[in-house]
Amino acid sequence: MNTTLSNQQISFYQENGFLVIDQLLSRIELASWREAVDEAVKQQLDQAKTHNQSRGESYYKYVFIQCVNLWKKNEKIRHLALDPRLGKLATDLAGVSGMRLFHDHALIKEPWANPTNWHLDNPSDPYYTRRATMFWLTLDDATVQNGCLYFLPGTHQTSRFEPIGGLGREGVGQIFQEYPEWEQIEPYVAEMKAGSCAFINGMVAHAAGPNMTTKPRRAFAMLLMPEGETFKGKQSVLPDEYFNSLQVGDVLENNEHLPLLYSRSETA
Ligand SMILES: O=C(O)CCC(=O)C(=O)O
Ligand SMILES: [Fe+2]
Predict the structure, then answer these.
(1) Distance CA 166, CA 171 (A)
(2) Which domain holds residue 140?
(3) Does residue 124 form part of some domain?
(4) Predicted confidence (pLDDT) at residue 268 exceeds the cutoff of 50
(5) What is the pTM of this model?
(6) How far is the CA of 218 from the centre of ligand 1 (A)?
(7) Which of 37, 67, 134 to mutate to test the pocket of ligand 1 (most atoms within 8 A of CB)?
């Protein structure tokens, strides 16, 4: 794994709100990730079929197949995802003291999938911060044809925590009703080779194109929360039992549900 970060890369992330790291993984590591994600997604989909679960409604179900918290259900994913090296990369880029995993999700954009609308991640999460980041690993070459990511550089500096904006609604550009001042920002087009990753500030506007190819575009992502963040009231994917035990303002530090990937204080 290519974990060296230059000062230039850190500055780019801080200034733009995202960073693409080309070929983070070796070919062997990429093969392990593909095997683990394929296996875990299949397990989850088979289980959903057994329980007759639908994939949700309307537009959103044709954006991607989304399988959440695979690290809790699959040993291979657990081993790959809870890698302190990934936590350290995120910690160094975000300039925080450490990072916890809030949740993971596999994002499989199937052939003819809809675009992923422009959105911000953090406003939907149980904590509000400009320092959260998402690790987004592509398991296939992500191209303009099959739904690569796009970013609006610098928008993490002026975005707001309310309203949520974006993802579940119809219309790729709904967010611009809330942020008309962003409409003229030229998007960064993030085509990436398989095994490359992006770190995406939770407050930067991002999107992905439709998949206009006959093969799926597979990605695996992890939402990473700086250690010490406090609960703001939203459940998102927190388990009921944990959610019900929380008061607004509590520090989010449950190691069972929010494992600490890396902390400077623990490793110093
Ligand atoms: O993989 C994609 O299409 C985008 C995913 C994304 O933005 C998210 O999960 O928040
Ligand atoms: Fe997102």
Answers:
(1) 9
(2) 7-267
(3) yes
(4) no
(5) 0.96
(6) 11
(7) 134
